[in-house]
Amino acid sequence: MKKFCLFLFVVIGLSLLSTGCSEERAFKRIRFLMGTPAEITVVAKDKKSAYEAIDAAFSEIRRIEQLMSRHKPESALSRLNQRAGEESVETDRELLYLIAESIRLSRLSRGAFDITVAPLIEAYGFNKAIEGDFTLPSREEIAKSLDLVGSDKIIIDDENNRVRFSLPGMKLDLGGIAKGYAVDRAIEVLKQREIDKALVNLGGNIFALSSPREKGWQIGMQHPEIKDRIWAKIELKGEAVATSGDYERFFTAKGKRYGHIINPKTGRPAGAVLSATIVASSALEADGLSTAVFVLGAQEGMELIESIDGVEGVIITKDREDPRLIKQLVSKGLKERLLHKERRYSRLW
Ligand code: AMP
Ligand code: MG
After folding, report:
1. Ligand 2 centre and the CA of 16: distance in Å?
2. Threshold 0.85, pTM exceeds
3. pLDDT tens across 34-69, in order?
4. 5 CA to middle of ligand 2, Å?
5. Which end of the chain is more exposed for a tag (fewer CB within 10 A), N or C?
6. ∠ at Cα 69 (67, 70), nearest 5°?
């Protein structure tokens, strides 16, 4: 399995950060959290308080990981998954909020984003850490898992903080949205500590607070097929960006490629486009919508992007007529903002 760790990465060199602001410096730390590299950069005058703020933001991400992880049996999400198919389960307010937001995005994307895909994720083995454990489920297995999919089958009792699934065997997977939420929370923690110039990057889920440069932070979008190559750059300030692609987690069986983002309608991996990048006002929305748009494909995906105020995006696809070419669709509000290193069309070989 090929693994590109970061779909989006910060292009700007740290040395650039001090230009124009002589007393301010950039402080950066990297940790491994929520199964991915977490990188926090803070621009401030005082070294000690900058690193304290960064560490507090990492602790916040760690706290969310404890709550939302499917790999930790004691997490609030795991407890819900173990019992909510049988009975109504009292749960954490924050988890409830994330489930409610996921249901909102599911409705917005007409079911393309759906956290109840968990049984399908398990059927393919994408929930496992070991690469060799991926499997191709049979038609019957897919059909059985599909019966358990649908956000309308999650019953929330908001007043009493309780959740119940309408069918036993149902499970939730927050892998398509929890990292974005964690980035938003980390930014809140930095703001509480009076940090106003910062960048949080959790495995390609990015929020850019104001930066020393007038134009903001320069973020590189990963080329969907060539490792370490930047497809385009974008400058961000007070905004989030996220990319979904199947070049992160996939396996090949019988000559076909199977990626980790599942179409909840068919129960099969989505793969109509190469990547979907979303710019939004929160990292949660950018994260959820990038997964949704990857499932929807080029046309429906761009329609969804254009229909939401304050949301922009780039969809990269293979050219239908000539598969040696890849092309991009860019939302109206982003056209002028995308900085291109490459020409509009790029040769693969
Ligand atoms: P992302 O990289 O943000 O697009 O998230 C991909 C992850 O979201 C997968 O690894 C699964 O854990 C989960 N997922 C897969 N398909 C879907 C879907 N259709 N809706 C919501 N979450 C999904
Ligand atoms: Mg996502």
Report:
1. 30
2. yes
3. 999 999 999 999 999 999 999 999 999 999 999 999
4. 14
5. C
6. 130
